[in-house]
Design a protein that fits this description.
heterodimer, A: 454 residues, alpha/beta, Rossmann fold, 7-stranded mixed sheet, 16 helices, B: Aldehyde Dehydrogenase, Chain A, domain 2, 5-stranded parallel sheet, 37% helix
Chain lengths: 454, 429
């Protein structure tokens, strides 16, 4: 089920939530997942959203008493869920981070969670899954869509050290997928305008899998990386190059380059043959490519620049994993008279294994990396950490830059409240903009790195 | 376009080339250099050159090193170094002079010779022009042929100095110069093979682990401990204007409020009076920093400021890498501030106020314990009128070198990061 935005003073989603509890003290666990896909989150009145999400946050904090990390953490001892009314109350809740924030009292949870992956998960997980299923009468269908798998475990990139595991239920996953579809739709992906997607992300990663599911939700034709590889292997022109690259340890640089060029030509053939209109891919900055001899042969611009004519029908390029560099944007969005190619849009998103696509944007002329925040099921707070005796997150005025802290509201699995992501953003009236990160070249183990090379 | 070649024995050649660009185009002239790729044939050539090297005795080797007093870098080398490193020409010239003095000094120290039939493979970095002189002098005085792989981020100096040594009578094969394209898996594999050659003493600058089979210098944090501002002030400029050197004190821990205010004032004064502009102008004292370094630096500073642990008290320009002073704090019992553990290869100085020497020691101990791999700083300079003897001993637990009333950057070349290079070379089978 999905909601249609209707023109009246109070969005349908708000009306619906009021029927559950007029004061919005609602646990997202008990809501049907379509709530995560509702476009009403973007249009509802700011203060109403603040109250709705605040009520949810109160419930999330109450539930966190069943999560060992929060239950046993002295910082959380005096946090009372009933004191939380608004989302802005996140400001006085403790901060969590994978690694220590140097100089502050914020201690990283990486080591603790790696020794016990259950530390961040509700001890009453089975009960919460039952509640999620009760709220979603079509849960059996959702389960089938997720391969009958009730629990998903994903390792985060591990850019700062050993990867940490995030655990999600299939309903958690579906809520994020619906929200991702909402973000992609707002970026410009649309069944009517650009219905055929080629995704170069591997669906063994959370991001790749959720892109596939989001395409299904949007009713778009989705061609996965696995399908692309099977197609290449069946074509005599490309099969040898693919198999050589799959065991690339024995290749010289020249062979690696030659076979990679063949595979890229094959990808362009696929794009032409299937009339691909949307490409979901990765384009790292030049310094990443120049310092990674073994990776990057499937970087998007390499595929594009060797044969722009194959991209005549492509209307949307979705690039994640790194901020999109200016040159890439300019190249893709400039009409190329030789090949008659014009990329009408480049879009991106910020996301993480711990959360989901929580900041997103489409680009026509502005900065493609100037992301706007999604409002549910992950909420992003821009703040600065302050205080020695009583640490808190200062309230920033709009236009001020700060650190990004994420809270996953609709989660039966791993719970993250005020998680410091390492990202920076500018506070806006409605949320945040201009999300960015400074050290982006180390993406070991990430979905993006996997998508970059064969 | 300028091109350079490998220098193997007396041969200068390049079988295949790659292009590198200097990041700093002074006078509007971008510079691109053609460098040789590293091929299997080069590796064989090096082996032959080392086998055939005509050994000369100690005094002759000392004479060859001594000839460096007549070496004067060509204008092309100096300008290229400026454009590659971003450092001003006057600073580079000065460091080359210091490198020559260091090498000549080593040739007069009566260093031991190696009894073994091996050679050194040295992978050097571009951050300090003295580095090449240090390794060339040590290997030559230890009578060990050297294969020195120059960084493609500063490919000129080592090549020119080696040619000078050859012209001054150094037999071909004593010092051999190689380049490699680090983005090429083929080149990287050959470098790795050469490092792993059982006949080689592998010496690696940069982030590498110590192991029984390798002499590694893990370029790490150096810092200053100020007990008396008056003792430190004459030396502050040395570190401030050598931002890329791992021996520079990018961070000062200052005991006492009055000392702190004086140091603060002096550092701000040095940054504000620095002369920026054309790197090739002899008057320029402050160089330029690469964009990627600045980007990382901004991230680090913003993280500190936004997490309430840093305060930018002076910034000469909007870009904090070009003259900035940052106060920093750490809560007790927490992971130390990043300015206590991260190198800052830019024109940025960190200042930490502590009320007592005990506080300073506690901070240094905590920071050293957090340093990756070696758990020790590279060096600590201590400035004070009456430095307590036990303080120096205490600091040695946390740093490889402790320099009383002398900048960490002022070195004699005998020991580096706790390694006596002559001992390492001559006792390494």
């Amino acid at each position: 089920m999905s909601l249609t935005v209707i023109s009246k003073s109070e969005p349908e989603l708000v009306q619906y939530l009021k029927t559950i509890d007029k004061s919005y003290r609602i646990d997202p666990i008990d809501l049907p997942v379509w709530v995560a896909g509702s476009a009403d989150w973007e249009i509802m009145e700011h203060e109403t959203r603040n109250l709705i999400l605040g009520g949810m946050l109160s419930k999330v904090v109450a539930r966190a008493k069943h999560v060992p990390y929060f239950r046993d953490n002295p910082d959380w001892e005096y946090v009372r869920p009933d004191d939380i009314d608004r989302l802005s109350d996140l400001h006085w809740l403790p901060v969590m981070a994978k690694d220590d924030i140097p100089g502050t009292a914020v201690t990283g949870f990486r080591a603790v969670v790696n020794s016990n992956p259950g530390m961040l998960v509700h001890e009453n997980l089975d009960e919460l899954i039952r509640r999620q299923e009760k709220a979603n009468p079509d849960y059996a269908t959702i389960l089938v869509q997720h391969g009958g798998q009730k629990i998903f475990r994903y390792g985060s990139g591990g850019t700062q050290g050993q990867s940490t595991t995030t655990i999600l239920t299939y309903i958690d996953m579906h809520a994020e997928e619906l929200a991702l579809a909402r973000c992609l739709t707002s970026n410009g992906l649309n069944k009517g305008n650009n219905g055929r997607i080629l995704c170069l992300y591997n669906d063994t990663h959370k991001g790749g899998f959720q892109l596939k599911q989001a395409a299904q939700i949007m009713g778009m034709e989705f061609h996965s990386r696995a399908e692309l590889m099977d197609w290449l292997k069946q074509k005599p022109k490309y099969s040898n190059a693919v198999s050589k690259l799959e065991v690339n340890e024995q290749l010289t640089s020249q062979q690696f380059e030659d076979y990679s060029a063949v595979v890229r030509a094959g990808i362009r053939d696929f794009i032409t043959e299937y009339g691909i209109e949307v490409i979901e891919s990765v384009q790292p900055p030049p310094e990443f490519l120049s310092s990674n001899a073994k990776g990057g042969n499937l970087a998007f611009m390499k595929i594009y620049e060797e044969g722009p004519s194959s991209f005549r029908n492509v209307k949307e390029i979705f690039l994640t994993g790194f901020p999109v560099d200016k040159k890439t944007c300019e190249t893709l969005m400039t009409y190329d008279p030789t090949y008659e190619t014009l990329m009408s849009r480049v879009s991106t998103t910020a996301g993480s294994t711990e959360a989901m696509a929580w900041g997103t944007t489409k680009n026509i002329l502005g900065d493609v990396n100037d992301l706007k925040s999604a409002h549910f099921p992950t909420v992003a707070l821009v703040a600065r950490y302050s205080g020695y005796c009583v640490p808190n997150l200062s309230t920033l005025s709009p236009g001020t830059e700060g650190l990004v802290f994420l809270t996953a509201l609709s989660r039966a699995g791993s719970v993250y409240i005020n998680l410091f992501t390492g990202d920076f953003a500018t506070k806006t009236q409605a949320g945040l903009s201009g999300v960015h990160r400074y050290q982006t070249t180390n993406i070991a183990g990430s979905c993006a790195l996997d998508a970059l090379a064969l | 376009m300028t091109s350079l070649t490998h220098l193997i024995g007396s041969e200068m050649y390049a079988l295949e080339t790659f292009t590198v660009s200097a990041p700093f185009a002074e006078n509007g002239q971008p510079i691109e250099v053609l460098l040789p790729r590293l091929k299997e044939e080069d590796r064989e050539g090096v082996k032959r050159a080392i086998r055939r090297v005509e050994r000369i005795d100690y005094s002759e080797r000392a004479r060859v090193i001594g000839s460096l007093v007549n070496y004067s870098p060509s204008r092309q080398t100096l300008e290229s170094m400026c454009r590659f490193t971003g450092m001003p020409i006057a600073w580079i010239s000065e460091k080359i002079k210091e490198g020559i003095q260091l090498a000549v000094g080593l040739s007069k120290r009566g260093l031991e010779e190696s009894p073994y039939n091996n050679h050194a493979f040295v992978n050097i970095t571009p951050n300090d022009p003295r580095e090449f002189f240090f390794f060339a002098a040590h290997t030559l005085m230890a009578d060990i042929p050297a294969v020195i792989k120059l960084s493609s981020r500063e490919p000129f100096l080592g090549h020119e100095v080696t040619r000078h040594l050859l012209e001054s009578g150094m037999p071909p094969g004593y010092v051999n110069i190689l380049y490699a394209d680090s983005s090429s898996r083929d080149d990287s594999k050959i470098v790795k093979d050469m490092l792993n050659d059982p006949a080689a003493i592998p010496i690696v600058m940069g982030s590498a682990l110590l192991s029984p089979r390798q002499i590694s210098f893990y370029a790490d944090h150096s810092r200053g401990l100020v007990l008396d501002a008056a003792a430190a002030i004459p030396h502050l400029a040395t570190s401030i204007f050598s931002p890329l050197s791992c021996l520079s004190e990018h961070n000062h821990i200052v005991v006492g409020r009055e000392n702190y205010e004086r140091i603060k004032h002096e550092v701000m004064s040095l940054y504000s009076s620095a002369i920026t502009g054309n790197l090739l102008d002899e008057k320029t004292t402050m160089g330029k920093i690469e964009e990627t370094v600045l980007s990382q630096l901004i991230g680090l500073i913003k993280l500190g400021v936004y997490s309430g642990t840093m305060n930018v008290i002076y910034a000469r320009s909007e870009m904090p890498g070009h003259g900035a002073l940052i106060e920093h704090y750490s809560e007790l019992g927490t992971t130390p501030n990043l300015l206590m553990t991260q190198s800052l290869p830019a024109y940025v100085t960190g200042l930490r106020y502590v009320p007592t020497i005990e506080d300073a020691l506690r901070d240094i101990a905590r920071a050293s314990a957090c340093l990756p791999k070696l758990r020790k700083s590279m060096a600590i300079a201590v400035y004070g009128n009456n430095i307590p003897g036990d303080l120096t001993e205490n600091l040695k637990k946390h740093a490889f070198t402790v320099s009383p009333n002398r900048p960490c950057d002022k070195v004699d070349g005998i020991e580096h990061q706790g390694v006596n290079m002559n001992h390492a070379l001559t006792r390494y089978r």
